[in-house]
Amino acid sequence: MRTIEKSKFSFSSLLLVLLFVILAALMLFPLYALFLASLKPATELFRYGLNVRLDFNLMSLDNYKSIFSGQGAAGNYFGWYKNSLLITTLFTLLSLLFSSMVGYGLGMYRFRGRNFIFTLVLVVMMIPVEIILLPLYKLMISLKLINTIWGVILPFVVSPLPIFFFRQFALGLPKDFMDAGRMDGCSEYGIFFRIMVPLMAPAFGAITILQAMNSWNNFLWPLIVLRTTEQFTLPIGLASFVSPLGNNYEALIAGAVLAILPILVLFLFFQRFFMEGLTVGGVKG
Hints:
- It is a single chain.
- This protein is an all-alpha fold.
- The chain has two domains: 2-60; 76-283, MetI-like fold.
- It has helices at residues 2-38, 42-48, 62-69, 77-108, 114-125, 133-142, 149-153, 160-170, 176-183, 188-199, 201-217, 220-225, 234-239, 249-283, and strands at residues 242-243, 246-247.
- A hairpin with a 2-residue loop joins β1 (242-243) and β2.
- α9 crosses α10 (188-199).
- It starts with a helix and ends with a helix.
- 26% of the residues are buried.
């Protein structure tokens, strides 16, 4: 019986591994096709579209050389890259700081109006961003933040999803640590930063990836706020390669490949926290 059970378990495990290998291949296929396209001239893209044909006679690093040399339309590419890195870094750090404090406060402290505030967070979460773009734009004009990185960062630095996530995670933390910190003379801010933040590391890891990815890929709001080419973020800059005045698909595809690298590195760095943070934060309540 044990041999039969072992064989069934091994067979089911093999099927599960095979399924995930197939899913991983399907997910990686577009990236592989994009990378191959970045090594070919644009004429091949027009002729065959994105494909996985290996033609070493056509493949070269010329597209990447044009970006690194700053030739033609790709002259501002690394300026856009720097803008996106700066905005993403500041946005993610500020979002982690303020959203974690709000979520922690809603989850660990009991005060009048707590449930009402949390209900407002849920209501805001259900409002499409497009509805509030015009009021936000008028607000940025009033604050004179048009065409600045702070005009891109500040309106969404405290968003409802991270607050909800941190609140759910905080509900699962033992309050005994707070009482122990108070007995040792630690302030409420000290309890949060010295005791609770390390315990919330999985939540911080998961939200870091989500918020950084949202900021890095954000296109609509920076397009509305930013005016000059020098202030563009990477998504807007890449979109400018395709215009009625001319198309530069070689730089567009090669630039898109390079644009994947920061988020890929970030995910590899925080991946051990990501699944734990999502599963634990999603079931507490």
